[in-house]
Amino acid sequence: MKFLFDLQDKYLAPLFEKGGKFEKLYPLFEAGDTFARTPGDVTKGAPHVRDSIDQKRLMIFVIYALTPCILFGIWNAGHQFNVHNNVEEATFLMDMIRGSLMVLPIIFTSYLVGGICEVTFALIRKHEINEGFLVSGMLFPLTLAPTTPLWQVALGIAFGIIIGKEIFGGVGYNVLNPALTGRAFLFFAYPAQISGDQVWVGSASKAPLVNQIMGYTPTTTDGVTMATPLGVAASSEGVSAQAALADAGYSLSNMVSGVIPGSIGSTSVIAILLGLGYLMITGVASSRIIFSGIAGAAAMGALFNLLPLDNSFAALPFYYHIVMGGFLFGIVFMATDPVSAAASNRGKLIYGFLIGVLTVIIRVANPAYPEGIMLAILFMNVMAPMIDHYVVQGHIKQRTKLARALNHA
Fold it and tell me: Is residue 34 in a domain?
């Protein structure tokens, strides 16, 4: 392998470097080169810092952590499709095949369209291709339903990359999380289709060739719609939200396992916790944001339980808010974005806690949008610089006070 890299450095690299025949395509060459190996380049001036982990490796670690969510999401999409189309003879393999046919085109479209946007801006600005897209391009499709039209996927990821990141200057300069920006755009642009309270379970009648290959005949013609747990809880007027969830077939156990309709990557608490464990072991994600966010949601949910409100959703046990919807997925994989999140240690605690609090407030107070985590993270993305500012100012005042006390002593 070293022999091949030596040949590349000697004969191929000069073609893409300054003055080379393909100088304008250097960002593409650099992206492929640094993805395959860690270059031996060092800074021209001191200090020289060497580390085994660079940004690309960091982002790849996040993709590794997302793997349980991706695999489970593929299986669950196929399983829900087969169950609600009365395909009783469906096996695990059939579920995986059907799920792959639904989910993989969405992921491919996200990477293709988003990648074109990234490369275009890199070539125009003559800088390296940003590594952050490795994660944004995967997070965005995992927030969508498995039956989202591909044109909406393309439109959403293009909006998220261009408006959410590139217009600010690229990675390191964006205020908002790009994946959530694209998801928010689709939600507000197409609220009837991406409302968060209904999940479309696709129709087997629309895939006759696949049905023939897999060896079954669909019994439904148009498919069905299924209310998500959050949609059921938000519309539970006159009865307790817990009872409404039970009547709709949602229990605490199946919401933890994730074998329910929902977004591709966010239904299974178990899969998310596996990813969380990997992030904690590798030290990639901020535990302060994650656990303070969970504490904030639990505290706000418990407070609503104590208040005498005429709202069945408010009376839902606080721990339901942790396992319902995309809360855990959002707080683990999106709120911890190192660019758009708070940077100071104390700021991370405040930032995460307020995301949890706002998520529950939005869910309970706004029945039109029962999810909450997306808007809570985006709002706190905007507030993160202010949080860090006041944390730093507080440190300065504290140290100034301490210095004066020592001088007087």
Answer: no
Render pLDDT for 48-58 as a digit per residue (tens, 0 to 9): 666 656 666 77
Residues 221-225 have a mean pLDDT of 43
Dihedral sign computed on CA atoms, order 77, 78, 79, 84: positive
pLDDT at 202 over 60: no
Number of domains the chain contains: 1
Does 33 map to a domain?
no
Which amino acid would we find at residue 82? N
Query: What crossing angle do the helices spanning 133-142 and 55-84 adopt, rounded to 10°?
Result: 20
Name the residue range of residue 356's domain: 55-391
Hunting for tokens 């392998």 — which residue is that? 1
Q: Which CB contacts under 8 angstroms, 24+ apart, belong to 205-210?
A: 207/101, 210/98, 210/101
Residue 21 lies in a domain: no
Calpha distance 288→352 (Å, rounded) = 7
Question: Does 12 fall in a domain?
Answer: no
Where do we find the tokens 């940003």?
130
Q: What digits encode the pLDDT tens for the residues 55-77?
A: 667 788 899 999 999 999 999 99
